Each structure stands twice: as structure tokens, then as C-alpha cells.
């Protein structure tokens, strides 16, 4: 009987060693299995119907919230006083994105055009599209700055043209008209006799070119041959570099199209992306870790140098001619119109910009842009891109519509494009990328602990059996009762 127990103990020791080995192997193999699954589900491949459909027709609801800077003192501005504005909004639009003309190429790239449409959401808005707003008239004040170096006689003629078409320095229109366009006799005249002067051939509106439009022909890497290149832009509209800016570095098309990034990110990883609307590549930097419904994330934000001028940040010299830090001159890709983009309320900008306009109050929580991203997959979980559109305006002699306007970078609107993963997608994400890896981790350490415990107990039993002598019962001279034969320890 003792020999059998000894063999059993040895058997348990072997089983324990095998369990420890299995648990140890699992610690190395488990992450590799998970990473392999991430790679398979990150590659842009029509054979993977779930991830491909998620990339092609983004199921996450995106919204654009628009805030207008309603001008309170237009008459005083024409006399040279500081502009006074009040923020109106948000006016919220649901954004529907869909990729079309999807074409795969032999060099592991895919081309597509992404079309976007906007639908007004009254229940999410702080007003209606029928609200009346007053903003600077870009057609007049923007053109005045563009024409300031023309001969005086030409400027007088331009001013006469504005009066003929009853175009003043400020517009008072409904939100819908300002957003999506309004009929203008001046626009009709320019499109007929000076085609190409304006970016739009139809109605004139701040977002007239956005609705029912596409962001250009993107060609990006599928990641089929190298997962580190997935989603990165190979070309845009056939271009591998831009021609808007003054230096090769500024004209580079870097990063992705701004929707997803390559997986396996670290805190040193940055988020570069190309934005056709901003006419340039931008790059966000890691700020802090976080969590969204149990899913770990990294928050990325815009560095203070994003819109810094060339004096404060030398690499941005290529985006000049610059004014103060905090605003980007995009006139070179906006028909030379004196338009600047910035963070809302001139957040992270030169205080001089803030001092020239009354009614602004920047803060990071409301006006800083960020992307919360799952570092293991490169999929954004929560996005908030906030930008402001500004018009540089000043007095131009000969164009009487400009009055005595002081030189100012005037905020007109700011908008936030936001979206976050919710619903069944979050549950799938949480299960596959949080629960299953955690279960695997607990299993591997559980196997190791169970194996070690089995080895220790089996070794103790084996040792005890080895040192304990086998007791031989004395000769049975007397007949014992039957029950004592069953329980010899009672003898």
C-alpha cells in the first residue's frame, strides 16, 4: 500500500511540473495569440467582414457642434472699437460618413473617397436653424484685405461694386443660411464674369462645400505586408506631398487619414494625421492614461506648438507668413482669403489675440481637442476635434465698407467634431480586449500556482512515505474479534 502511495505522490509531482510548465508557456504564448488576433482584425481586408465593414461604414455616430460668435456691436467696430461677441449654440448636426469607390491595389494599398452628409439635430441643439446671427461678411472684409495692394482707383471700383449689390461689412442671416449658403447677387456676378474667384459656384455659406461632398481621393496602406503601416496615407488626390506651404517639411503628408492608427502604441507614440480641411498634416501627443467603461486608453492632445508661429517654433516657419502664435494662416489653400484657424476662443494662443476681442474665455476642458485611443488596437474610443475659423480684417483705404476697423483677427465660428464608441461595439471591445486577456492572464498564473502547490504537497507526502518505517504486526497467537481485523489501530 505504501509503495502505491509513493508512486501516486511521484505522479502528482510530475503533473505539477507539467502544470507549471504549461502556465509558464502560456505567459509567453498568450500575448502572442492576442497580438496575432489584433493584427488579423486590424488589417484592411474584405475577407474580415466585421473589421472591414467597421472601417468602410463607420458605425459610430459622429456629430458636428457649431458655435457662432454673434457680433454685438457692428456699428462700433466700424468706428474702430473692439469687437464684442457672444457665443451662440451649439447647433448640432449628425455626421454620416461612407467610403465609396473602394479599390485595392497590388502594392498593399487601398484607395477610396469618403462622402459626408450632415443632418440637423434639434433635440441636441441650443437653438434652431432659423436663429438670426450677425457675423463679419467674408465677401466684403475678406476681399478688402486681399485687394489692399491694388491701385486706389481699383479699390474704389470694388467698393462701388459692393454698394451696387448691397453687400455690407456684416451679415445678419439665419444659421441655416450662414451654414449651407444663401443667394447673393454679388456671388452670381463673380461666378459669371470672374469664374474661379470664389471656392463655390452655388450659394455662399461657411459649410456649403462640406455637405454632400468628399474629402478627396485617399490612398492608404492596408497593413497586409506590415501592420505598422496600416491606415497610413500613401497619397491624397494623387499627391505624395502638398504645394500650399513654403518648406518640404510643411508640405509633407504624414500619418493616417485621422480615423484609425496602427496598433501596439506606447506612450512615446504620437498621432500624426493629414487633414484636408486644415490643408496640412498635424500631430497629437500623449497626455495621460485613462479608462472608458473598463477599456484602457491613452489620451492624446494638441501640443502648444501646433499653431505656433515660426518665431516661437522654428519648424512652423514653413506655414508662414505668420501672425501671432496660436493661429494658422490657411489663405494659401483658401483662394488667398485672409482666413486663419485656431483652437476655440484662442486657447493656447498669444494673449494679444484674446485682448483684441471682447467676450472670449478659453479653457482646456471646453476648447482643447483630444483623441482617446485604445493603444493596443489603434482604434479611437472617444474623439473631440475642435477648431475655430477666424477672419483677418482691417481698414483698407478706398473701400469705405471697412470704415475705421482696427486690425483684428476676428473669430467667426468654432466647431467640434465628436464621436465615441457605444452600444454593442463597446461590449465586443470589452470582451475581446479586456475580459479575455484578463482571463488568460489569471489562467496562466493559476496554472503556475496550482502546479507549484501540487509539487509541494506531493513532495511532502513522498518525503513522509520515504522516512516512515513500515510496521509489521506481531504474530497472531490469539484469535481477534472480526471488527479488530478491520480496525487494527484499536489493538
What does this structure look like?
By secondary structure, the protein is of the alpha+beta class. 30% of the residues lie in helices and 27% in strands. The protein is built from 11 helices and 15 strands. Helix 1 (2-42) packs antiparallel against helix 10 (424-467). Keywords: Cell membrane, Disulfide bond, Glycoprotein, Membrane, Receptor, Transmembrane, Transmembrane helix. Belongs to the CD36 family. GO terms for molecular function: lipid binding; low-density lipoprotein particle binding; scavenger receptor activity.
Summary keywords:
11 helices, two-stranded antiparallel sheet, 2 domains, 491 residues, alpha+beta, 13-stranded antiparallel β-sheet, 15 strands, disordered C terminus
What is the N-to-C order of secondary-structure elements (H for helix, E for strand)?
A: HHEHEEEHHEHHEEEEEEEHHEEEHH
Rg for CA atoms: 34 Å
Low-confidence region ranges: 481-491
Distance between the termini: 20 Å
Mean pLDDT: 86
Overall tally of structural domains: 2
Number of helical stretches of at least 4 residues: 11
The main sheet comes to: 13 strands, antiparallel
